[in-house]
Each structure stands twice: as C-alpha cells, then as structure tokens.
Amino acid sequence: MNENMMNDQTLIVTGGAGFIGANFVHFWIKKTGQTVVNLDKLTYAGNPENLELLKGDGRHHLTVGDIGDQGLVSSLLKAHRPWAIVNFAAESHVDRSISAPDAFIQTNVVGTFNLIHEATTYWKALNEEEKTRFRFLHVSTDEVYGSLEKDDPPFTETTPYAPNSPYSASKAASDHLVRAFHHTYGLPTLTTNCSNNYGPYQFPEKLIPLVIHRALQRKPIPVYGDGLNIRDWLYVEDHCAAIKTVLMQGTPGEVYNIGGNNEITNINIVRTICRLLDEQLSPEVGFSHESLITFVSDRPGHDRRYAINAGKIETRLGWNPLETFETGIRKTVRWYLDHPQWVENITSGAYQKWIQTNYEDRK
Prior knowledge:
It is built from 13 helices and 12 strands. By secondary structure, the protein is of the alpha/beta class. The strands form 3 sheets. It has a 7-stranded parallel β-sheet with strand order 3-2-1-4-5-6-10, sandwiched between helices. Helix 1 links the parallel strand 1 and strand 2. It is globular, with a radius of gyration of 20 Å. The chain starts with 9 loop residues before the first strand and ends with a helix.
C-alpha cells in the first residue's frame, strides 16, 4: 500500500496494550497517522498505562475483549473495515507456561484460531481490490525453533520447529494455523518470528526489567543456572519498524525472521545493567549492583541458545536494526529510571507473589 494513501485506512491490532503491542501502536500512529483499533483482554501484562500518551487521540480506539470472542471480533471487523490485522495477542512467558499451561493453549491456539477464522470470513466478503490489499500479520517467536548448541548456525525461516516449552509449543501451533489458513483458504497472511525484545513498557517478569527493578530495590537479582544461556536481543522499536516493513512490503504466505544481531549470555546482560545503574545512580562508595547477583536453580527445559538469521528481511525488504545492544540497553535503563510510577503501579501484590514463587523460593 502507498503510505500517502493510508490516512483514511484503519488497522486492527490485537494485544496492543502489552509490551510489544503498545510500542507498535505508538510507533504506527506516529509514523503513519493511521487509525488503530486496539483489541486487548487487559490481563496482567496488558496495561492501559502503556497507552496513556494516546489518551484523547482520536486515532486510537481501545476495545477490551478477547481474540477468542468470535462475535466481538466479527463486530469490530464489520464496524471498522480494516485493511489489515496485526496479531500480538498472546500469553508469552515461559515460566508461567510451565506452572499454568492452560491459558497458553486457550489464548495462543484457540484464540488465534477464532481470530483468523473471523478474519477469513471478513476477507472473503471484500471486493477484489480490498481482498488484494488485505493482510493478516501474525507475530510469533524464535522459540518455536527450539534450542541451539554453541556452534550451531542461527535459525532461518526453514529451520524445523522443535518447541521445548508449553509456551513455544502453543506459539508453534498458532504459526501452523496461520500457514494452513493461507494455503487452504488463500488468506493473505504474513508471519514474523522475532528474537528476545527489550525496551519501554516491558512487564518486569522478563529478564531486563526484572533485573532493573530488583536492583533498584536492592534485592537479590536471580540468575538461572550458570547464567550462560544465550539470547539474541532486539530493541522493541526496531522490531516495530520491521513489522511495518513486512506489513507494507512482505509477500503473502511468507515467514520473516527478525533479529537484533546481538547474541549475549544472560549473565553478561545482568552485569551490563548493573554497571549502567552504577554509572547513572552513583551509589555509595564500595557498593556495586553486581553484588546483588544471585544464582538460582535452573528452570525446567531451559533452552540453551537462540539466534536469528535475519538475512531474508534484510536482503529482500531492506530492513536492518538501528540500535546496537549498547545503545538500546542504555535507552531502556534510562526509561525505567525516568518512569518509577509506572513500575510501582504494575508491580502489585500478585506480582510480588509470582516473584517469590518463581525466584525467591528456588534454591
């Protein structure tokens, strides 16, 4: 689609009050000026405060609801007639999927099925021009590919799926549903599989905001196992730009891997954050935030390494990440230091109980 013709078009974003979704909503409206209808269930990770800067902006409409509610999805499609749907809605934390997998199957598998089923019904009723333009973009994860050994080549779009947690298995199932609806019904789908994201608005159960939050409280910073698990880190705004690129330029039916070209061990992530906090907070002489690092027992089935080969999106669509890890993590730490009220509001009693169960009760 020509971006100059987009101002009168509407995009539906699901899960747009969560971490990546909210960042994408802000990014999309800023870059395109297009109206966004945001469908979010507002579970623990879906936070309306993530969208506070859009309060009163007529280009953003938040609807509280579940992607699994076919009646609601159908009514939104009929009322707003979007040219595309971007699906971020998902349960996304591995530890939670281990302790309570049911919600992951319900949202990531059943919910995605209901959403794409209604999208297909809507798409079939469009005129030929609208059908050609329509896109359904499904946001997924590199975890569907399983785990890599130290010297294995990074994941590509043709790497066989080998999920190792209830979370990654549920996302793998949703990816397969999206593929099947394209090949069976012709729905113009796009799938993106991204590496670990970080940046503003991330719920502090994930590694980077968890480390920042615990360090600021002068509480032990838990690190699983030996801390040598490797992830590829992607700054969230780079991810948003990649999704926009795929949505505008991607070929229907294709999969695009999105990575940050930053393979780093967990322990080095933690130490980097501690050093940045030492630098920016100037703590008392003799204290270092690294002294708070505490190794705890590893989680079950912990994948050793993820790495993304993003060559396809780089060569075919011309996207490259703008942030290095050094620049992105500095921005991220600064954001959390500048938004203590957001952190305080989101870390409720339920969050504290979850932290105790998943970290403080480990040996």
